[in-house]
Design brief:
heterotrimer, A alpha/beta (about 300), B alpha/beta (about 120), C alpha/beta (about 290), A: about 300 residues, alpha/beta, Rossmann fold, Alpha-Beta Plaits, nine-stranded mixed β-sheet, two-stranded antiparallel ribbon, 11 strands, about 30% strand, B: about 120 residues, globular
């Protein structure tokens, strides 16, 4: 068992994102959490949650996540269709003298409830997914899973990042979904610092640009981790240098690392040389966040 | 009897539109009077729930039968509630499909695909 | 015209790398990039001309006329998406606004209106021989399903002659954009990666695709990074009676090739050789 673990991170929330999938977001998130004396790992990629596959946690809690869906009292409904006409998502139809509601289309805005002149509509809960809490050594894991077919993972991410999960005085690593859509924005809104993971390909740079714009828009302090670095020219590195973007770490392309990772192993726990990479990254992050606190209190 | 068909253009020579929810127009054809009524499909450009909104149009225009090449489960459930029979159209002109229908050559639609936001049937 | 869609479930498996090889091999006259969140195909498809661009409008967004606002707080109270905040004046966060129009309804003075909002951009590359349709979703947007549908529609309406096969590069995940891209395609090729994460994601995308009654084929990319996992994937395919069309080895040359804007079949390399086999088997399955 490797002994030196990074301490003194305090209550630091790090979001890890990348423009495209497969760059190493989960690799970085999982291993950062693993090398900290104590950490919380939150998997916000609710469509394709992977982090728990590495931690293999003992699950201790689970919570169904529900959104509000309308239901109609047929005795009060007079077929005026105010609700059908109001719904911007087309979740309501009036057919065969009754109101038909499409749960999967509904965005839970509550509008139809408000516009009904007969007060015939009320709300009920619909389960869209689940949040599970687990423990694996020094890491507390929160995983959110969106049920197949559900349109939006935002309510789950919202719950994952709620007060009680973030409050503890330890490192929190937020593994974000890929891309820069609304689910990503939801995932980074409370972060103290953002790590952008980039791979050394033309695709990687193009997608790095997108998340770079995103973190600038949200005014988040950020830095880049270059993953799978090879001897050849790295277009992602070039982009960072040209745009004065801080490079926090360069993880070399490494067959052994790839194999361990492909088997669901936490590489930092397997070999000293990988532990060093992630410990020094974490130490660097602590310094960055402390600096930010001084510069932007 | 009134037959509804999603169409590309406002003409009986028009091809059947392969999409239901996003068809630009619907033709409502009255078999007895042989009248044709083309209605703009206001669901064509919506960002979501197109099939559902289009199905409401079919119901409101009091069609008894719908001819389509494909249909999603959400639209199908609306039409079923209104007792509208759905037949498998072929990728051809409206006129051909109408003739085939009156000659009893079309069969009921069997494959309903999952709605774009719908649950998979377990 | 037969449409082949390439999906992966997990990102980074090599979907676009393989799609670009297929496009080269089939000399495709029509192809599209439906990964509207993070489109990449245009980077290696070798177009020198500028595309025709058009705005894509998504759901309308709310806008507050501050001159009419009496700060009653009804809008903020009723917004379920936390899109309205009071920061000296009432402000709507366009990234959080879902266009439900509840705020417009509850506002007593009519200070809130729903206005058109550009949610992305469609791009069409075309010349006398081929067309390439793609799009970019604007940052923070949701609802990319319709944009995916527009990309496919744009491709189809730009085709002016007999096209045998259209290749569509899909998006990762299993959500709305994947479902929209599945509609109307003749076959799906799933690019799987032999990792624990990759297998888990592959199974989720298979479940999504099965509901569409299209042919499903699976290939493994970078298969030799983990032979055990690759065997596992083949077993899953046999068990679910899916068409297994081959496996491509990890190739350290790929990064250099892609970065020079080429496809793996433009250059002599091991992945290029194997992808040709995968291509033959896939096309065989598609046309029979």
């Amino acid at each position: 068992m490797l002994d030196f673990m990074v301490e003194g991170t305090g209550n630091m929330k790090i979001a890890v994102l990348s423009g495209k999938g497969g760059t190493g977001k989960t690799l970085v998130s999982v291993n950062l959490a693993a090398v900290s004396k104590e950490a919380t790992y939150i998997d916000c990629d609710v469509e394709e949650a992977n982090g728990h596959l590495f931690f293999k946690p003992q699950w201790i809690e689970k919570e169904d996540i529900a959104v509000k869906i309308p239901q109609v009292d047929k005795k009060l409904c007079d077929g005026c269709r105010n609700c059908v006409n109001f719904c911007k998502f087309n979740a309501l139809v009036y057919v065969n003298d009754e109101l038909k509601i499409f749960d999967e289309i509904c965005h839970s805005c509550g509008g139809c409830i408000l516009v009904c002149p007969q007060k015939a509509l009320t709300e009920k809960d619909k389960i869209i997914g689940i949040i599970k809490k687990g423990i694996s050594d020094n890491v507390t894991i929160y995983t959110g899973v969106l049920n197949t077919g559900e349109p939006s993972g935002v309510p789950i991410i919202n719950k994952l990042l709620s007060e009680k999960n973030l409050k503890e005085n330890k490192l929190t690593v937020i593994d974000c979904p890929p891309g820069s859509s609304c689910v990503v924005m939801e995932s980074i809104k409370d972060a103290d610092y953002c790590i952008l993971v980039a791979e050394p390909t033309l695709f990687g740079v193009h997608n790095l640009k997108m998340v770079y714009q995103l973190v600038k828009l949200f005014d988040k302090p950020f830095g880049v981790v270059l993953n799978k670095c090879l001897k050849e020219d790295n277009p992602a590195e070039k982009y960072c240098l040209e745009n004065d973007i801080k490079i926090l770490s360069k993880i070399p392309f490494d067959n052994e690392l790839g194999t361990l990772n492909s088997n669901g192993e936490i590489v930092a726990n397997k070999d000293e040389k990988y532990k060093k990479i992630f410990s020094s990254l974490l130490n660097k992050l602590v310094k960055e966040v402390q600096n930010e606190a001084v510069v932007n209190p | 009897m009134k037959i509804a068909i999603p169409v590309e253009n406002k003409s009986l020579d028009s091809n059947v539109c392969l999409s239901f929810g996003r068809a630009p127009y619907f033709l409502f054809y009255n078999v007895e009077t042989k009248e044709s009524n083309f209605v703009v499909n206001n669901a064509a450009a919506v960002t979501g729930g197109a099939g559902i909104k289009a199905a409401q149009t079919i119901v409101d225009n009091k069609a008894n039968v719908l001819l389509v090449t494909q249909l999603g489960e959400n639209a199908a459930s609306v039409l079923k509630a209104a007792d509208i029979k759905i037949y498998q159209a072929k990728n051809a002109s409206v006129k051909e499909n109408l003739d085939d229908f009156t000659d009893d050559k079309l069969s009921l639609l069997e494959k309903i695909h999952a709605g774009f936001h719908g649950r998979r049937n377990r | 015209m037969k449409q082949l869609l390439i999906l992966s479930g997990k990102g980074g498996t090599g979907k676009t790398t393989i799609a670009s090889a297929f496009i080269k091999l089939s000399q495709a006259k029509a192809y599209a990039d439906c990964d509207v969140d993070a489109p990449n195909l245009h980077l290696i498809s070798g177009w020198n001309s500028e595309p025709t661009r058009s705005d894509y409008y998504g759901l309308q967004k709310a806008e507050i006329d501050l001159n009419q606002c009496i700060q009653c707080d009804q809008c903020r109270e009723n917004c379920r998406f936390d899109a309205i905040k009071l920061d000296e004046v009432y402000k709507i966060n366009p990234y959080a606004c879902e266009g439900c129009s509840v705020c417009e309804f509850v506002c007593p003075t009519g200070a809130i209106k729903m206005v058109p909002a550009v949610a992305g951009e469609l791009m069409l590359y075309s010349d006398k021989e081929k067309v390439f349709s793609t799009a970019q979703l604007k940052m923070g947007s949701g609802n990319s399903g319709l944009l995916v549908t527009e990309v496919k529609k744009q491709m189809k309406s730009a085709i002016n002659e007999e096209v045998k096969v259209a290749i569509i590069d899909g998006s990762p995940g299993i959500g709305c954009p994947v479902i929209a891209s599945l509609s109307g395609v003749d076959m799906v090729l799933i690019v799987a990666e032999p990792t624990v994460s990759g297998i888990s994601d592959m199974q989720r995308v298979i479940k999504t695709a099965v509901g569409f009654n299209t042919k499903i084929a699976v290939c493994i990319n970078k298969y030799d990074i983990n032979i055990d996992n690759s065997n596992k994937i083949e077993e899953i395919c046999n068990h679910q009676e899916l068409d297994f069309v081959g496996k491509i080895p990890f190739d350290s040359e790929v990064v250099k090739i892609i970065n020079s804007g080429q496809t793996i079949v433009d250059v002599d390399c091991i992945s290029g050789q194997e992808v040709k086999e995968v291509y033959e088997k896939t096309m065989n399955s598609l046309f029979n």
